[in-house]
Structure formats: structure tokens, C-alpha cells
Amino acid sequence: MSQIRLTSNLSTNNEQASIDPQKVAFAESDILSKLLRLDQALYVVQNGEAVGVCLAEDLKDSVAGTSMSLLSHVEPLHVGQLGDPEFMRAYGINMAYMTGAMANGIASEELVIASGKVGLLSSFGAAGLVPPRIEEAINKIQQALPNGPYAFNLIHSPSEDAIERGAVDLFLKHGVTTVEASAFLGLTPNIVRYRAAGLRLNAQNQVEIGNRVIAKISRTEVASKFMMPAPATILQQLLSEGSITEEQARLAANIPMADDITVEADSGGHTDNRPLILLLPTILALREQIQAKFGYNQPIRVGAAGGIGNPASALAAFMMGAAYVVTGSVNQSCVEAAASAHSKSLLAQAEMTDVIMAPAADMFEMGVELQVLKRGTMFPMRAKKLYELYKNYESIEAIPQEEREKLEQQVFRSSIDEIWRQTEEHFNARDPHQIERVKDNPKRKMALIFRWYLGLSSRWSNFGEQGREADYQIWAGPAMGAFNYWVKGSYLEEVSNRKTVEVAWHIMTGAAYLYRLRLLQIQGIWLPPACEMYVPQPFSV
Ligand SMILES: Cc1cc2nc3c(=O)[nH]c(=O)nc-3n(C[C@H](O)[C@H](O)[C@H](O)COP(=O)(O)O)c2cc1C
């Protein structure tokens, strides 16, 4: 019996070709190897009862073969055909694929440079780093990739405007021409300054956008702010401060704030946990409304992030209309990521259900949570306990003695007095105002003490602090488990083989591979079940 199943009568096409039967694949494993040849058109042929496949090259010089019915065919497909070619042109890249920032330099210089060298776009994890460290990264990346592509993360800092402003100063000073803007709730003068300061009119009287913004959002109201031109009030303020010119203010009023909007669904780290399958079409519809209203010369592109962990999820995003896809979680387990070996090995063992929401250090008091790994670490449980205590008590002193002792022994491994001493030292060096605000506010003091643990647990994970493994805070979303499931048994199961570029290549190649399968399926041609799996093979380029 034929291993290819037909659910519609395609032989009525009645197209015949003369083919050497030796060149037609009828068995599962042979069919699979023909399907993997994405550079070749693939033909589905029928010889009597048997249905098989052959490549365009197999059809050549087959005049002396057997006459078979040509049931259907699919065209060659390369990874560069997925997504919006304008996205690739704008950033000078080969695939509509980007790796998102990972804070504290987890998305390291090595990662960004490895991607950039082969024409992929990666965003450096500038969040949480001090300005001299960001500057060091800019220098290193610009030296390795003088013509790009690369991006830097500009993260909104609700409580520390100076940090956001300082990052923009650095980006403008060093000519960083692409930022991935994230965590914004609305537009700030900093992001508007970055955008407007890069505008100019060229000799043909056209607006040239020098500073590109890829805005990552998970809500329609924030998306619409980035899809519209900068607000007149902010432009006016920047103009009166002398931060932008009159021409720049005028030009900024006619272009959107962002070139690209990354729709972020359920992801690692900060997330609204929305399903991509619903969020992406909604933001695409919003884009259409805004485009109809403003008639931009270059419509805003909309990409997809959150849950891209295997070829099928990437293909789903493209099929829904994503201009590009963005991965995050999967890259933290890659060799170039600045996470510890222990964290990477925990990530590589994770299943999809091994992630959970836990309190975030930066917005702890507000009860904001982020998505982290729960298997192999007690961090989520301990962080939740801290938040519970914070909610229930007005000060450290009000916490029952027994609970306090437990905290000191199990979580802090030090006296609370000692933790407060370290906290004061930290903020006095970085932001003394935080310590000022604690006076007469014991609840706030308690928050700062608890944030000592929340802040350090990320560092322990990144630097591989020995003895603190049970407290590692490792950001990850369900994409990590889905990725591990997909690569099980392949060379990418082994962490030391996970190179960012190869992961990217296989996700995209697998998506292209699956696309042709779906095209055949829609025509009523069902390939054997084993062909459904695109298994990554080691790179040989
Ligand atoms: C460890 C880690 C750190 C992250 N840090 C940041 C960050 O600093 N800034 C940011 O914009 N996004 C950050 N993200 C989000 C990623 O850039 C990306 O948008 C997201 O991970 C995509 O979803 P996924 O995790 O489902 O792949 C982080 C994600 C992870 C896993």
C-alpha cells in the first residue's frame, strides 16, 4: 500500500510525465530526504497504485522512463522567502528572524556578533547594565560589525528616568542606529528624542530615518502609541530644550514612532501571558486601521515573539501575517549567552510546563510578575513567599520571629541587618534617593531588603554562583520546553551544540519545510507521519 495518502482525486489532472522509477521515492525515509531538498521543486507522481515523490532534477533526461501521472508539485522554497522582504532590506539581514534582548548582557556581545556575521539581527541585552558596561558593548559590537546588523535594547525605566536617558545619550553618541524598545507603557521624551534626532531630509526631499525603532509590545494601547507619530507636546519640549532641530520636529510629526512592532505573547521574563494566535491578528488589524488613517509611505511591519520555540510555531506566525519572528528563551540555552553552565543545563532539561510566574525585582511592590524556570530551582517559591510577607506585614519587625528566622536561614543565609547594610551600600553608590525614601517608611525598607534577594538571584544564575544553585532566577517561557521536545535525539539536544545561528537556521528551515507539507496537504496529499518531523542536522557550512 502506498505510504502517501490521497484524500482527493488528483489523477483527473491527467498530466503525464516519463520518469525513471528508480528516481521516485515511495518509501518513508526516501520521501523524507527528497522533501528536505528545499532548493528543488518537488513532484508528487502516481505509478499505478503507488504514489511517490521526485525532484525537478529527477524529471530531467527521463524520456526513456515509465509514464506516470503528475499529481501535483510544490516550488522550491528558501528561508529568505518567509516574512517581509522589507524587514530584511531595512536591517540588511538574510532571514526575517531576530533574537530579542536578554537583560544583564545575557544576550551578549558574542551572541550579537555571531548573528551579525551571518546576516542575522540580534539585540544586545543592555537592560540592567551600568552605562560604562553598555558603552563597552557598543564599542565591541561596532568594531566587529561596522556595518551592522545589530540592535541595542532600550528598556523603559519607570522609576529611574536617568537610566533610560543615559542609554539614549550613549546610543546617539555612538551612532547606534537600531534599538529594540521594550517595557514602555507610553512614549517618553527619551525614546522620542532617539527617534527624532535621526531624521533628516535627503536631496530628493524624502525623509530619511537614521534611528530605527523596533518596539516590543503586548497591548493594543501601547502598540497604537508607537504606530502613531510622536506627540506634539513631547516634540515641542525637545525642541525648546535644543535636543532636536525644528526640521526634525516637523519630520517626526509625519512618521510613525516605530518602524517595526514586535507583538510579544506568552514569553520568558516580563509577559502578559497572551496567546500569540489571538494577539498577533489583533495588532495586525490595528496596524491596518492606523495605516488607513496616516497613509505612511512605508507601512509599519508587525513581527511575532513569545512562544516561538520550533519550526511549526514560527510557520504559524508567518501564516498569520507576521513580518518576522523573534526568539528569546531558546537563545539563553545557547553557547554565546552569558548565562552559567548550570542554568543552561537546567534550561535544556525543561519541559513546557516547567515555567511559572514569580515576583519581579524591578516592580516587586506593584505585584508585577515575570516568567521563570521552576524545575531545578526554588527561586519561584521563595520569591512568592517574600511577596506574600510584603503584602501581609507593614514592616520587617512586624513579621513573626519564627518567619524571620526562616528567612534568614533559608533565603538570605545571613541576618536581616546584614542584608540591609548591603542594600544601603548598593543604593548609596547607585541611587541614594532610594534610601532617602525609606525614612519613615518601614514597608518600603522591607521591599528593598526583599529585592536584595530578587536582584541577586539573577546574577547568581548568570555568573554561576556556587552553592546558590537552588536560588537561581532563570527567565524562561514555554518556548524553551517546546524547543527541547523538538530537538530531543538530535545534535541540538546537547547544550554545547546550541549555537544561536544554528538554532535560528533550523527554526526557519524547518518552517519552510513544513510549509511545503501543508501546501501538499491542502491539495489532498498526506505524506507519511515521519515526514512531519523536521529533525535538525549538524551544520556543514
Ligand atoms: C533570559 C531572558 C531575558 C530577557 N530580557 C529582556 C530584556 O532585557 N529586554 C527585553 O526587551 N526583552 C527581554 N526578554 C524577552 C526576549 O527579548 C523575547 O522578546 C522573548 O523571550 C520572546 O519570547 P520567548 O521567550 O517565548 O521566546 C528576555 C527573555 C529572556 C528569556
Task: Look at the helices and sheets and give the structural class.
Answer: alpha/beta
Low-confidence stretches: none
The biggest beta sheet reads: 8 strands, parallel, barrel
Instruction: Calculate the mean pLDDT score and round it.
Output: 95
The helix content, as a percent range, equals: 40-55%
In the sheet with the most strands, the strands line up as 6-7-8-9-12-13-15-16
Distance between the termini: 39 Å
Question: What does this protein look like?
Answer:
By secondary structure, the chain is α/β, with parallel strands linked by helices. The protein contains 21 helices and 19 strands. Strands 6-7-8-9-12-13-15-16 form an 8-stranded parallel β-barrel, surrounded by 6 helices. The chain has a 4-stranded antiparallel β-sheet with strand order 2-5-3-4. A 3-stranded antiparallel β-sheet has the order 14-18-17. Strand 10 (199-201) and strand 11 form a beta hairpin. The two termini are 39 Å apart. The structure holds flavin mononucleotide. Residues 100-103, 106, 125, 127, 153, 155, 180, 182, 216, 264, 267-269, 305-308, 326-329, 332, 475-477, 479 line the site of flavin mononucleotide.
Q: What key attributes describe this structure?
A:
4-stranded antiparallel β-sheet, binds flavin mononucleotide, alpha/beta, 541 residues
Q: Quick summary of this structure?
A:
By secondary structure, the protein is of the alpha/beta class. Helices cover 43% and strands 15% of the residues.
